[in-house]
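Sample intake sheet
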Amino acid sequence: TRSLCDWSSDVCSSDLGAVCVKLDFLSLTVLLAFSALVYVVNGTFYTVIRSGLNLRLRDPSLTLVQMAAAVVHFVGLTFFVSSEGRAVFLFMSIVVALYGTFRLNTREFILISVVQSLSYAGVVALLYQYRPEAMNIRQEILLWVCLSIVLSQVVMIGGYISHLRQKMQKQNSELEKAVQTIHDMAIRDELTGVYNRRFLMDTLNQEKARSDRNGFALSVCILDIDFFKKVNDTYGHGAGDEVLKLVAKAGSETLRVNDYFGRYGGEEFLMVLTQTSTEGAIDGAQRVRRIIEALKFPDIGEDFKVTASIGLAQYTPKEEIAAVIARADTGLYKAKENGRNQVVCSE
């Protein structure tokens, strides 16, 4: 993005400056001197931005500083322009303020306007002292008053736009949070916070396609909390919910970041272990089983414990998702049949 000073230099030297020189409002020497100064200032801004030093500042874009430089450039030229052409450069300096509409806040708008107004007041004072023949004091005072009035309107409009921008940013932030909440509700189980069945099935289909395409191993585990109905009947459904939450938390935190753990239904949970063969799946499932076995439930009872049975199956290329889940369910049935609190592979 070209800086404001760059823009000011182009307008002044190629268009406005050339016209002023042609009409004898400005000398060519002054124009060349100010153009050279603009290139120096632009070079400084370019060096700062390219070196990354601007990233340490509150405003890395240096918008306010660049606007101030452009304003000083235009207002400074009014000292050397004849009285007939002075208003033109003041007009162009006001245009510079518009470049901050979508960046500056109200306080910064006031600051740049004060700089602009005081700069021209300084020019008038210098003209009165050093070039009184090149000015009409009444005209200059009128120009300064008009400039100040216009700048006050720019501040009001810019401040209003700044307020709208901040309001829109806040609304966008709230909208993003709402969208994220809706997204989480769509893929998360409301009670436990882990992935829900729909998300798990979608993920399984994606991983199946990846496995068929690249030959990656894929394993599926079904975890069932042992004697969960007894927990509800003995301690109540509140205790059952607490068990589900802690088991879900333990299972999701134990797996790798590229694995998926979610609630399959009731007290059953599904684990999707990507790029994992049967041996690795057994290790992972055993780790989850041991952590669940060690869980404590102080709100239910000091001696209260739960265990989990897990059945697993490794995906076979081109196999239907329902088939691999059925095989994992067969392993779970065998784990229950063999005494619970164990991991059994369907094969």
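Comment: The two ends are 63 Å apart (CA to CA). Residues 1-10 have pLDDT under 50 and may be disordered.
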